[in-house]
Protein 1
Amino acid sequence: MSQVGHATARALLRRLAVEQAESRVPSLAAAIVRDGRPAWFGGRGRVDGAPPTQATQYRIGSITKSMVAVVVMRLRDEGALRLSDPLQEHLPGTPLGHLTIAQLLSHTAGLTAEPPTAWWERTPGVPVADLLERLGPGELKHRPGRRFHYSNVGFALLGELVARLRGTTWLKALQSEVLDPLGMDDTTARPRAPHATGYAVHPYADVVLAEPEHDAEAMGPAGQLWSTPHDLARWAAFLGGDTAGVLCGDTLAEMREPVGVDDGDSWSVGFGLGLQLYRPGGRRLAGHSGSMPGFLATVWADPGDGVGVLFMANTTSGMKGSLLTDLLDILEEYEPRLPDEWQPVAADPGLLALTGLWHWGPKPYTLRLLPERALSLEPVGGGGRASRFVPQADGTWLGLDGYYAGETLRVAPDHLDLNTFIFTRTPYDPQAPVPGGAGDWHA
């Protein structure tokens, strides 16, 4: 399967082959999605004596969290919960029930990273009731809302939230509401043939050790699932916007909005609502990484460029962090996306008359008419507050982004009123209500 040219496919495969050989990965699969469709697949190494295919299962670890988060957001959209709700409103008597659903989704609740059990990734899981009994104030490591602190425990709680509100298990809810509608039939809780065995590779010798696999039970929502390159490519397309009705596009965009920062001063890695965010080289990627004993996986989507990328490997550690961005760089170098053709569109004469130069005090702004009756207000030359606006039924305009997101723009005959800020055709028009009657300009 390939929608890319031969030279592109060869360059992509070489990067994958270098990774598999130099990082000593028993098997490695990768794929690229473009405009919601599979564009390239590559596999190196061996699974049961043969190269991995699009149907080979690997464990995907914490990518599971992003799928559970979608079910939580579906509950929100249905009105079954609010993100600002404390957990105890839906799980009465739950330890640490004062933490909000939004804080758990974004890893800003301050919860401990790991559960108060044995090493949960390498030992059989405990039932939910057992986990809840073990949780107490000691598992709160930071003031809720203060900072980003990744928590597997938080998603165990969210999985139980889904189970209680849906009246079934988190897994069955995920299967019926997300996996089945997306055609992800080979994403399962336990492995099925053909699947890769998870290995640890010895750091100083070319030998491997099989890693354990088990049911994580209460911790399952944090990293239980297995999947295939085929299914994970469908997930990449979903993250890029091809939701197939599983989730509203605006809700998915909300999940991609940054809430916390994960890498200190560099501010290139963050977290939204159940989704990891990454900004390498100007790209805006959303997705999730995953690791469990013997397995590594990551999936990213760039909705702005219509591209997704993923890898799946059966090794505990040792891979370079640049594999997926390198694959995107190769795709961009060999087959850059062509811009959409510009075409004229019909314009409302009244809106057309609003376009052009406006002034916020002495600062000039440009008002442009966008497709589908939207407006864009941007400072001339950049370097200021820019926002887009969409019309409302009452004749006002709602800010979509930037400083004025959620704010109201009102259009008067001789000025714009943007949440009390007055924009006029000339700097400080004395006829405008504010400042009104300003003196003359002078030397």
Protein 2
Amino acid sequence: MIKKLSCILLLVLSVISCYQPERNCSDFKTGEFLFTYEVNGVTKTGKFIRDKDYSVDYYDNKIDSASVRWLNDCEFVLKDLNNDIAIHYKILSTTKNSYTFEYKNAVKDTNKKLIVRTGTATKTK
């Protein structure tokens, strides 16, 4: 009985460990997207338009522009054109029209704690 239970448990763990979320990252390299973000406990919606070289963000009545450098199909760095801030993004999973990502500062600052956040972007065009 214990041997049979062990075999079943091993089989279940094997199947679970093989699961990989869907990542069709190339579908999201360019386009128009909506995303949500939080400021002081208030959830807001922003928009960005990304082509192969640039990303333009529209949020809180502001417009930010950044260059885009793809590291591979699922990772890229946005570098703000107005200052020297670079953010590293990694697409974790995709659906038909959205992707979940994590982001953090691209350059490590030993004086600051590394903060990794996640978000979701929905492709509108």
